[in-house]
Amino acid sequence: MINPFASRPSGASLLAMVFGAILAAVLYFFSERWGLSPLLRSLIWALGMALLFAVMAIYRNSRRPPPARSPVSKKETHSAADGETQSPYTEELCDYLRHRYGRFWRSKVRLVVLVGQSRLVGMIAPELISQQWIEADGTVLLWGGNITSASDSNRIAALRKLRRRPPQAIVWVCDARHQQVSLADTAARQLRDRAKLLGWQVPLYVWQIENSESPPASRETQPIGCLLPANSTPQMLEEALRELTSQLTVQGTQQVLQKPADDFMLRLSHQLLNGEIARLRATLAPLLSGPYAAPLRGIMFSQPLRFVEGVDKFRWLPDASWKGILNDLSSVRAKRIGIPWAKGLRYSLAGLLIFWCFAAVLSFTANRAVLRESVDLTVRISDPAIPLEKRLMNLQELQRKIGQLQYRAVHGAPWYLRFGMNQNEALLAALWPHYLKINNTFIRDAAASKLTQQMNALLSLPPDSPQRGLMARQAYDQLKAYLMMARPEKMDAQYFTTTMMKQWPQRNGVSDAVWRNYGPSLLSFYAQNLSAHPQWKITQDEAMVGQVRTLLLRQIGMRNAEASLYQKMLLQVARHYADMHLEDMVGDTSARPLFSTDSVVPGMFTRKAWEEAVQPAIDDVVNTRRDEIDWVLNDNKHPVKEDISPQALKARLTERYFADFSGAWLGFLNSIHWRRADTLSDAIDQLTLLADIRQSPLVALLNTLDYQGKTGRQNEALTESLVKSAQNLIHADQKPAIDQRDKNTKGPLDDTFTPLLTLMNSNAGGDGYNSLSLQSFLTRITRVRLRLQQVTNTADPQAMTQALAQTVFQGKSVDVTDTRDYGSLVAASLGQEWSGFGQAMFVQPMEQAWQQVLTPTAESINAQWRNAIVQDWSADFNGRYPFAPVQSEVSLALMSQYLRNDTGRIARFITTNLNGVIKRQGRHWEPDVISAQGLHFDPEFLQALNQLSELADVVFTHGDASLHFELMAKPAKDVMQTELTLDQQNLKYFNQMESWQPFNWPDSQWKPRVTLSWVSVRAGTRLYADYPGIWGFIRLLEKAKVTQIDSSTFRLVWKAPDGLPLNYLMRTEAGEGPLALLALKGFKMPQSIFLPPPATANDAGDNQSGSDTPD
């Protein structure tokens, strides 16, 4: 037996001793610095050693070779017919491979198992049967027994223990004489059984031995066969064999010509062509398909191989016929069968142990960091030498730490702080005394002192002082906050914090920013924890509290109790009445085609709820309960005198209910949105439905509002009505021009619903107010609808629509705009409270119809703008300076044709096409607010138009480009002389007295050029810039740093290459002068004048409900 490492000592004990010594030394020398107790040191050392031994055990278990089987006698060995009962892969193989390839031989060696009859296996590996395994160049052949016999579990177990990975391949050796369909089926079953025992499905090679008449020594061998892809079929096998036949014919012919005795390839090709392919397909079919299919990788052919003896009995010198299989091993992989539960459980337990040890160390480290941070924080917060501002910051950090510990106490600490090391509760208990000491001094006592000071200031005011009434609300908040500090069970943290920050906005010794940032959190944390620590409460000043209560009772009475009664009453009513939706208000009509809203009216604010529940509830509250004083103003010792009657309380509750009633209905109605119409035909359909008295959802909605708006009204008695009529006759001259009240009834909702109910009055008189009526509005809507239908029913609807819209662009008025203005007047007459409802019901229908008329015309004008201006502008100016940083320049004469304010192409286009919707105000163009309703100007167009207009006022004042300005050179350090030449106009300055020199631009149309040079104390004349062309001066200004001094004076500084500044002053006649042309850099003419109408908020709802809209 070869075992060269048997005498070497194992390194496991040495590794354990070294690791244990190092860990013990580290714990010994650093335990004090880390704050480790002796018990904790021992625990860490034990955990470390346990972790080491666990890793070593796992490693040894994974590397342990399979146990050697008990030796069998030589007689028993030879008694077996095929040698299958010999002891399989013993420890001798492991020692041999370890000696030859080192300790990591398992990753360097390939295992190939040969199965089949021993006689046939001996023809290609003669020594394998007797030795059980042979090795050559990293490949080990293992004897796997006869494939037709039952699986040898011992042999499979030995193969599994040899290494964790499965063998690379299984080679089934057979011959054509014994290869039958039944034998292949049996082989497929046996291979399946071996794969289940092995746990892997290994690639299979079939090696067919052919008879040979020539001795092996006289033949030249080579690999012959075909490889199959994964999941091959019998048809693919047949195709591969036919392709192999053609190759064998060519190569065999060449081989016979060279050596006539070597005719194996030709004979094999002849056999395959004469039925062998069909036989192989039928024979190997069970291996390719069916329930016992195996991963057949290829089929090889050869004659019996000659045996070459190696250097020892286990060495094997592979014949050339083996190269086909050996070279293919690197491209195939075995597939695992099932789940390795035992191994998975073993590794899971080992991983769990490792994780637990690691987590324990991590938890110790993290808890130690938390403890150290807390200790440092308590040391810093207790230092009296630091200023108050810094101490408050430290107190904030301590609060944050305590709050974190409180959260962990309720919800659990993070996982990395557990594992038996959590110190959350102990640390929280240790931090409370430190917090209490600092908080009582700087927060609690200071807050109580501040409140006491403010309440004493109120008490010191004279009894008749008007300041008492003004300070009553604040005094109530101050008293309530003060009593909360004395009664922890009454503490409301949010109210207390808000009140204290209002009463204590600044603090001495602390900056305002720091106090506003840290004050709320400091006060809130104290308030939130006061109820859990009642011992933190203050001792209230009974005399001061009593005096403040007496004063507040005289000032604010019982309003607080009234609010609580009202809210309780509403909660009781709300449970019994469902919310009212828009569909409930329009009756049998459908509002979906016209308008919609997602809001609802709470069921408690309806006429039914008032009559059935709210009014009786108010009566019950007034009759059964006396007003209660809240705990702030009632000390439960001295009863408060009742000075408010039940009738007064009922009046206040009723008034408050109807105020909320009005607010709920106003909020609902103002949330209604008019649905968007995508086409003019849709808008006409909407107007048709809107104006139909019988089917209009608007009329149905207004009828519902008429019913709900009369909630709470009390009809006058007959005698009262007669008296009022007589009074109206007597005082007819005092009758108001606009009577906003119902003449027969009165109610609490009249102030809110009267404008709307008056609009619905069909018996309107002729006065100015009543001339606005719903009937008149619907009549106008019908007139507009008929006009629009005439437009759509013409032969050319688009032309008629544009003609209708052109009347507005030209400043004329049509029926559509008149009705739109009438709807706006109706909406305005409803008042500001009804603005949203008025806009949706009376403005947006006509606004939307008008947009449908204007949109095609706006698109047409956009097209005219692009054709008349934008295209020519782009062709003339794009890609030229100053619009682009290139050498070619724009013609000033051509630019003046566009930009002249009176005769320019842009001005003529605006005057001709947009005179009715856009006006010029000074130097700026602005849309006409009235005529341009429904149009959406492109902001880029207005910006560009105003920019070009301002430029024309400066540069093209007289039609052609002409600028007059003055330049003055200024001295600079180390600059002796500067010289500026602009179109043959020269300004030469050599540090003499500065003076203004006039310039004209452009001055010379024949030789335009600008140059700038300078002379410094270190060098002679040098040229800074030389730009030919009309725009040369503008190019020079582009490189200058410009600073505006006043409205007409600018400082120009050019930075020379040597770092010296070249200073000039420019004084312009109008605006920025030549500098205004710099605004053209990167300028692009807008492509459109008008934008498409923006999508409204309810467009999505329109699209979703479009399919439900009735025809």
Task: Name the descriptors.
alpha+beta, five-stranded antiparallel sheet, 24 strands, disordered N terminus, seven-stranded mixed sheet, 1111 residues
Task: Outline the structure in words.
This protein folds into five domains: 52 residues; 255 residues, no CATH class; 218 residues, no CATH class; 219 residues, no CATH class; 107 residues, Immunoglobulin-like (Sandwich), CATH 2.60.40. Helix content is 52%, strand content 11%. It contains 36 helices and 24 strands. It has a seven-stranded mixed beta sheet, sandwiched between helices. The protein has a five-stranded antiparallel beta sheet with strand order 19-16-24-23-22, with no helix packed on it. Helix 28 packs antiparallel against helix 30.
- What is the chains' assembly state? single chain
Strand segment tally: 24
Termini separation: 100 Å
Sum up the overall morphology in one term: extended
Please count the helical segments.
Answer: 36
Note poorly predicted spans.
1-10, 65-87, 737-743, 763-770, 1096-1111
Quick one: biggest sheet? Answer: 7 strands, mixed
Structural class: alpha+beta
Determine the fraction of residues in helical runs and give it as a percent range: 40-55%
Work out the radius of gyration: 51 Å
Secondary-structure map:
Layout lengths: L11 H23 L3 H26 L10 H6 L11 H11 L8 E7 L1 H7 L3 H4 L1 E4 L2 E5 L9 H10 L6 E7 L5 H18 L1 E2 L2 E6 L14 E4 L6 H25 L5 H20 L1 H4 L7 E7 L20 H6 L6 E2 L4 H41 L6 H24 L12 H36 L7 H20 L6 H11 L8 H19 L11 H15 L2 H16 L7 H4 L9 E2 L10 H18 L21 H25 L2 E2 L5 H12 L5 H13 L4 E2 L2 H13 L14 E2 L3 H10 L14 H19 L4 H13 L5 H15 L5 H43 L14 H8 L5 H9 L4 E4 L2 E4 L11 H17 L7 E8 L4 E8 L2 E5 L7 E5 L7 E8 L4 E8 L3 H7 L2 E4 L4 E7 L5 E8 L30 H7 L6
Parallel strand pairs: 1-3, 1-4, 4-6, 6-8
Antiparallel strand pairs: 2-3, 5-9, 7-8, 10-11, 12-13, 14-15, 16-19, 16-24, 17-18, 17-20, 20-21, 22-23, 23-24
Helix pairs in contact: 1-2, 2-13, 9-10, 13-14, 13-15, 14-15, 14-18, 15-16, 15-19, 16-17, 16-19, 17-18, 20-22, 22-23, 24-28, 24-31, 25-27, 28-30, 29-31, 30-31, 31-33
Organism: Rahnella aquatilis (strain ATCC 33071 / DSM 4594 / JCM 1683 / NBRC 105701 / NCIMB 13365 / CIP 78.65)
Protein name: Type VI secretion protein VasK
Pfam family, one: IcmF-related
